[in-house]
Each structure stands twice: as structure tokens, then as C-alpha cells.
Amino acid sequence: MRRKEKEYLKYIAPAMVTMIVLSVIPTIFLTIISFTNYQLGWDFSKTEFVGIENFVRLFSGADRDFWHSVFISLAFMVLATAVELVLGFLTGLCLNSWEFKLKPLVIGIMIIPLVITPSIAAQMWKLMLNSEYGIINHFLNTLFGLKVTWLSEKMAFWSILMVDVWQYTPFVTLIVYAGLRSVPDEPYESAAIDGATRIQELFYITIPMIKKLVYLTLLFRVIDCLKLFDVAYVLTQGGPGTATEFLSLHIFRMANAQNGLIGRAAAIALVLLVLTTCISKFLIKRMRKEEAV
């Protein structure tokens, strides 16, 4: 048994070393920096250990923008994942139910948003959402006489949400569609003999059999939403004001040349890491419960 373990070890060793170098060591360094007053450009000899002072500032309200960033990040996570799961599930269900010759073409077109780099997609949407010469306002003005300031303080959050839904709903659709294709026909045939309706088949056969995949999709999207940066930065840079300053953008603003407070930024990043880990652990626990049933 030990000989087999040694054989396995030599195959997984490169992956383990890569993970340690790219994940574990930076996380340890981040944790150490979060307990210091280190600032951008400082020599490390000037750095002082300040204990939990950076965390006290966050949770005592001294950093006023922190809780705002937490709130809009969590709100974005809930709304984006909910909308994408519903739309993706319905689209996947339609693709699985309907057979037509152009289905491969439809799936290919649907994947296009998913393969576009987020920063490029955001730049494209920034042009389309421009209140003066954007194509969306052009059609709204032509058809309904409307002119919407999409990147204003009231609309910026919803515009970023719209872009995220557009880009990542196909991801949910593909996973759901793949899951539906793997469901065997026998349960449906038995249900049809028993006189089950389509709605009953959906809730008692389809959803339970792909629930594990749904949780897996939810896990991926929750993590992506919590660490959202590129789309928000390109579209609004966290503005107007702090209207769309998600946690990742708040970390960036705290750490960049404008403030350079690396120690405080590291503390916020550590909070984001813990938040993401806790939510991920909860979803993984739910997945394992579904496997056990």
C-alpha cells in the first residue's frame, strides 16, 4: 500500500508544489501583512506589527466604505447567481426538450459571451451603454423616446449585473444541459405509466437528479461574483462615488498608489478570503448531503 502511495505521490507532486507556490505561500504572506502597518513604497524595516488594529478599523466602522462594499458584494452575489441559475436552468431545459437541426449552431452562438475576456466584454458594453452615442440608448430613443444614463449612481450596479448575467448565464446553461442529457429515460417512462405530469416530472425527477450539478454551478458562480473586479473596474472603476465599489475594488483602491495602505488592504482581502471560504464550505456540505441521500 505504501509503495502505491509513493507511486501516486510522484504524479501529484508537481501539482502540489505549484499549489503551494501560487496559493499557500501568498496566503501566508497576506496574513502576515494584514497584521502590520505596511504601506506602498516602504522599506520592510519601517514596518511595524500592529496586531488586530487593521481588523478593528474594519469592524468598528472606522473604514466607512468597507461595510458598503460588503453589502453590495453580497447583494450582487445573491442577485447574479439567482438570475443566472433561473435563466440557465430554463434555457438548458428548453435545449434538452426541443430537438432541431440548428441546435449545435444555437449552442455555439450562446457560448460566445462566455469565451470573451471579461475586460474586453466590459469595454464592449461600456460603448453600448454610453448615454450619448451608445447603441442601446439609440434604439430606446428611436422606439420609445427614452434616454437612460446606464452608468449613473442609480443604474451602475444594475448595468454591471446585466453584463454579468449576459456573460455567465451560458455557463449555467451548459452545465444544466449536460446534466439533463445524462439523466436516464427509465424514471420518466415509469412516471409516464403512473400518470405523472410534466411539472411533477420536473420537480420529482429532473431537479433531484441534477441537484448536485446545480450546487456545483452555484459554488463556481458565488466565488466568481464575490471576487468580481474586471467588469466593474472597466465599466465604472467603482463609481460613481462608491456606488459600485465591490470588495475587490475596495481592496484595490486601498492598496494602490492613491492610498498605498497595503496592511489595511491585506486585512480586507483576508476578510474576503474567509467570507468566500465559509460560503464555499456551506455549499460543499450541502452537496455532500445530497450525495448521501
UniProtKB/TrEMBL annotation:
It is found in: Cell membrane. The chain crosses the membrane at residues 12-35, 66-93, 105-125, 156-180, 261-284. One of its GO terms (biological process) is transmembrane transport. The keyword Coiled coil does not apply. InterPro entries: MalF_N, MetI-like, MetI-like_sf. GO terms for cellular component: plasma membrane. Its main location: membrane. It is a multi-pass membrane protein. PROSITE patterns: ABC_TM1 (PS50928). Pfam families: BPD_transp_1 (PF00528). Gene3D superfamilies: MalF N-terminal region-like, MetI-like. Residues 70-283 form the ABC transmembrane type-1 domain. Belongs to the binding-protein-dependent transport system permease family. This is ABC transporter permease subunit. It comes from Sporofaciens musculi. The lineage of its organism: Bacteria, Bacillati, Bacillota, Clostridia, Lachnospirales.
